[in-house]
User: Fold this.
Amino acid sequence: MDIYCQKCDEPWDVCYVGHDMDEEGEKGDAERFKRGEGCPSCKWGKDAPKEQSLRGETMSMLNDLLGDDIDGMASFMDDMDYIGAFPE
Assistant:
């Protein structure tokens, strides 16, 4: 299951964010991602769209509600994708 960058909507596997992001990138990248600062794909928000999408807003809300529960975020986002809540 995936969680998404709050800035650019890039999907990231929950296991990668939870375990491997810091090992392959710089120390603290996973925490930056979880705080909503962006991801390596959007150069930590520098290349992200100016306006946050519905998917990004949902991830921001989940971050506020669930904190470090990235499994819960991934499950919720999977359910939202299943019902077609996000426009492509």
